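so my prof wants the structure for this chain in the tokens format not the other one, which i didnt know existed until like an hour ago. anyway here's the sequence
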Amino acid sequence: MTLRSFALTDIGRVRPENEDSFICNEKLALYGVADGIGGLPGGAQASKTAVYTLIDWFKHKVSPGPFDYSSALAETNEKVFLLGRVLSPRTGIGTTLTMAHFDQEQVVVMHVGDSFMFRLRSDLLDALTQEHNVENEMKARAARGLPTYMMAENRAALTRCVGQPPPLEGDIHAHNVEVGDRYIMCSDGITRYVMAPEMQRLLQAAANPEAICRRLVEIANKRGGVDNATVVAVFAE
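here's what i got, hopefully its the right format
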């Protein structure tokens, strides 16, 4: 099995700065997106620090045995948190992080925030991540029989981000990889414009990873481009 990949980021039509960053490292089989938190200072620095820290962590892993993904996430969070203490002592800085590490015939997903990872397999599109926002947190509380309260205007507010005071609880889970799988990681500058059924059709029709990345960014910009748009695509062949 081989992996083909491509990544693309675009500032969009409105924002003065691109606060998204990405990982597309075929040598490490490491891919992902990080979206600096809007409304806080230092979004670009937060996302860049997150991806640089992860790349460095995987490059310098020397201990034998399985990868300690929890340790990688904790170190990444600490680096962004400490940078926030310097750049913005009152509010801190933060970023989302959705990362995929391919190892033999599995992919480990590490996720914090509201960026997304999708997998197309046998013409079925599955979301491999879930947004860490107030609405989903309240749904989880309700499922446990706990009281809930949510103001409508806050439903999409993030409940977790890389850069928050430690410890950080992230989602880390593994999935098997099959020949023919197609994976997409993207910031919400894409998912606010492209819904799942359209994403499925576009991913099915894409000739290669570069084609789907360019098409999704093009659509996001044509439909307003109010946010930075970043896509990383990985095809297993």
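also thought this was worth mentioning. The helical segments are 43-59, 69-87, 134-143, 188-191, 196-205, 209-222.
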